[in-house]
Task: structure prediction
Amino acid sequence: MPHTQPRHLYISLCLLTALVITTGGVVAQGFDPSKINWEALSKIPMHDGFIKQFNEQCAACHGEDLQGAPLGTPLVGVDLRHGDSVKEIALSISNGFSETGMPAWRETLDETKIWNLALYVAEQRQGTTILDKRADIPLIVPEGSIASERHAFHIEVIAEGLDPMPFSIEPLPDGRILLSERMRGLSIIATDGKQSDPISGTPPVYDDSSTFLGQVQGLGWMLDVAIHPQFEQNGWIYIHHTDRCSDCNELSRKGNQPVSMNRLIRGRIKEGKWVDEEIIWQADLETYTNTSDLASGGRISFDAEGHVYISIGMKAPLDFLGIQDLSLPYGKIHRVHDDGRIPADNPFVDHPEAMKSIWTYGHRSVQGLEFDPLTQLHWNTEMGPRGGDELNRLIPGGNYGWPVFTNGVNYDGRPVNVAGKLGIELDPKDAEFPVLDMTPSPAISSFIFYSGSEFPGWNNDIIVGTLRATDLLRMEVTDNKVSHTETLLKDLARFRDIEMGPEGELYVLLENASGSLIIRLLPDAPNEDG
Result:
């Protein structure tokens, strides 16, 4: 298969947003990515600008390594007396502390520069940078008992040596596990941990990827896989993938290149083959783009009534175009019946120009999508740009604000201020704001609401993974707010997917360049004292 040329890739979408803002340009629908010098763009040392600014303003007192100097305290490896959130750090920089000799930088720096300094300090405290993918860090699974606040547990490796770019797992009632790998397809992990060959007959996947700014880019990937809530009766398996085609719309013909778009199908596996395929949701071919599938989102979820939900990320011609447009699929959560019919109570079924399947909109990069059986509502996890990762409670018809509202900034540090240039108006009272903002960004990913017997102390809690921070977190939710967060596993690997088995088993998919893993968290046996 021919490789997609880098000049035909839109990654990094957020980076491109930053460059447009930097030059003061306005992006038109006719924007032509073939005019971009991608080779030159890939050499831009975005992070260096933050380092330079810190060294110019702060290093004399706090040290270039943030470990402190004779004139100032360390900023990493210690608790910060006045708070360690980005907002609190920015306030400290802005106001200063005259009693310790720290100047009030609001007199000489504008708000953007102060925010960038605060974000840089917070990122260094977290131990990550925005371009640190951390897919190739050594993956060493801890042995023995691991202590946590509610349960001691240990880890069992279920399968290893998997593709470096997996996407999802789905436990089956018989103990096997469905596994989707972006450029390899769908396979089955047997109870002994052996991986099958890819299931024949599933949608084609393409491995003609390119690497840009350390990120693998491509078109035509397999994303999430999920079984129907009544799988044991009907055998339906749902696949969320990006449907790829060439010479199929104006954009593909103009650039003589393939395009792709999210699509949801269902089928069954019989004698190792994919059969009975049905298309459940598909966008108009004219909305297919050459934006990398890295921006596609791609999760599946069901509610208690059998509706199926899918998340679509910023697969628009740029990451902010079409997100606020109800006639386009980008940046939306879509909801249909399990057979693809449009529910009569969808929030925009009577809107003359809207896609009838839209449930919520204004999303950037949805990495997790789950139903909460307690509130009977869906929640999502969503990546911001540089900062602004979110945990959201999804309200039917809700607008989640991208690109108008975010606590993140563009990768070059400039504000996300494209709304005015694009003519987008959104009053704060008409937007839904996150239950939890995570700035700096840990690259929040997949999650579940745990409800099993193996870890009763975690019931109704969110178990969520991160990609860049490489941590597994437990979040307690009280009155629709995160009241407490515990780190269960720290600095392990990129947590790509988390799923619960039929008996409450907790499975985790770890992504790693040297070979991905599926692990299971198991509770330690109680001691003699109970």
Confidence is low (pLDDT under 50) at residues 1-46. The two ends are 60 Å apart (CA to CA). The CA atoms of residues 368 and 403 lie 19 Å apart.
